[in-house]
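Researcher: We plan to redesign the surface later, but first we want a full-length starting point. Tokens attached.
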């Protein structure tokens, strides 16, 4: 699969395309909420949706931008915030999460940013 001209492909060592997986993470939450089949976990899904909105639109972009402007401690704080939010989301299901894979991928990205920030 080739990237479109002018677009970078971002892959981890497991072959995961991070931007695509991010959209997939957002999509799975909306899909599950819209089906209405899991009323027993609706509250957790709504809470996770709020967390993902913040992680995707604030924590991660601010962390990445902080690297660009030479503020690795701020990047570390934002990446740590993302790790906590995603971990809290997963734990809220008490072992019955329908989005474990998406939580794991998002957490992996945040942990990677955190590890890089700690080295700078």
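Model: Full-length starting sequence:
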């Amino acid at each position: 699969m080739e990237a479109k001209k002018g677009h970078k492909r971002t892959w981890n060592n497991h072959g995961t395309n991070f931007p695509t997986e991010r959209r997939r993470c957002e999509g799975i939450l909306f899909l599950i909420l819209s089906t209405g089949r899991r009323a027993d976990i609706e509250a957790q899904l709504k809470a996770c949706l709020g967390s993902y909105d913040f992680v995707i639109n604030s924590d991660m972009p601010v962390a990445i931008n902080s690297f660009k402007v030479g503020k690795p401690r701020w990047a570390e704080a934002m990446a740590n915030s993302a790790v906590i939010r995603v971990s809290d989301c997963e734990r809220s299901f008490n072992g019955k999460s329908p989005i474990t894979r998406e939580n794991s991928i998002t957490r992996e990205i945040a942990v990677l940013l955190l590890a890089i920030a700690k080295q700078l």
